[in-house]
Amino acid sequence: MRKGTASEHPTAHVAAGLFFLTPSTAIAGAVMIEAPDWSMFDSDATDVAPDWTEEEIVYLHWRLLQDVQVLADPEAPLDEKMATLRWIFTEADKDARPFSFASCLRVVGCSPLSPIAYCGVIDCEEIRRHLACACRRWLKESLARYPLWVSEALARNPEWVDAQLSRNPQWINEQMKKLSVQGDLFA
C-alpha cells in the first residue's frame, strides 16, 4: 500500500455540510473542502447507477473515437496501440454491440447531440481500410523506437505479442532489461 493511502473508507458517517481542512493548511493557508460522500463507494449500497443523459452517452462514443488518435503517435505505448487496433478491427458480429468501433461511428455520425456536425451513416469498413493503410506507417514509426527483435516478433506472431502486452503492459521493458543484464546469448 502506498504511503498516505487509506486501505478503506472511514466507517463513521460524516454529517452533511461538514468540512475538512486539507493537509496543506500549514504550508499554503487554510483550504476548505467538503466532506466526501463515501456512500458512492459502498459495495453494499442498493442504489442503482445514476442514469446517463443521451448527450453524455453520445459524448462517450465520441471520446472513444478520439482514442484512435493514439495510433498516429509514435511515442504512444505499444500496448495502447494494440488495444485500439483490437477494438477497431474486431469481429464483424461484435459491430452491433454498444460502444464497438462501428457503433461509435454510427452514433457520432447520426446523432444531433454529436460534438461534430451531422454527417450521416459512416461506412465503417471504409474507415477500417483507411486506418489499415495508415497503421502500417504508424506502426513502423513506433517500432523504430524499439529493438529489432520487437519488430520481428510482431511481424512473426502479432497475436502472441498482443497477448503478452495485454497480460503485462511492461512486458517489452522487462524483456529489454533482461537482455541488457544477461546479454544476447546468440550474438
What topology does this entry show?
Layout: E1 19-21, H1 25-28, E2 32-34, H2 54-66, H3 78-88, H4 101-110, H5 124-143, H6 148-156, H7 158-167, H8 171-182
Antiparallel strand pairs: 1-2
Q: Which short descriptors sum up this protein?
A:
two-stranded antiparallel ribbon, mainly alpha, 2 strands, 187 residues, 8 helices
Specify the helix fraction band: 40-55%
DSSP helix count? 8
User: How are helices and strands ordered from N to C?
Assistant: EHEHHHHHHH
| Unreliable stretches covering 5 or more consecutive residues | 1-31
Overall pLDDT metric? 79
| SS-derived structural category | mainly alpha
Can you list the strand order of the major beta sheet?
A: 1-2
Number of strands: 2
The percent range for strand residues is: under 5%
C-alpha termini separation? 42 Å
Radius of gyration: 23 Å
Could you describe the largest sheet, including whether it forms a barrel?
A: 2 strands, antiparallel
Shape: globular
What does this structure look like?
The structure is a single chain. The chain has 187 residues and is mainly alpha-helical. It has a domain at 54-161. The protein has helices at 25-28, 54-66, 78-88, 101-110, 124-143, 148-156, 158-167, 171-182; strands spanning 19-21, 32-34. Strands 1-2 form a two-stranded antiparallel sheet. Helix 2 crosses helix 4 (101-110) and helix 6 packs across helix 7 (158-167). The model is unreliable at 1-31 (pLDDT under 50).
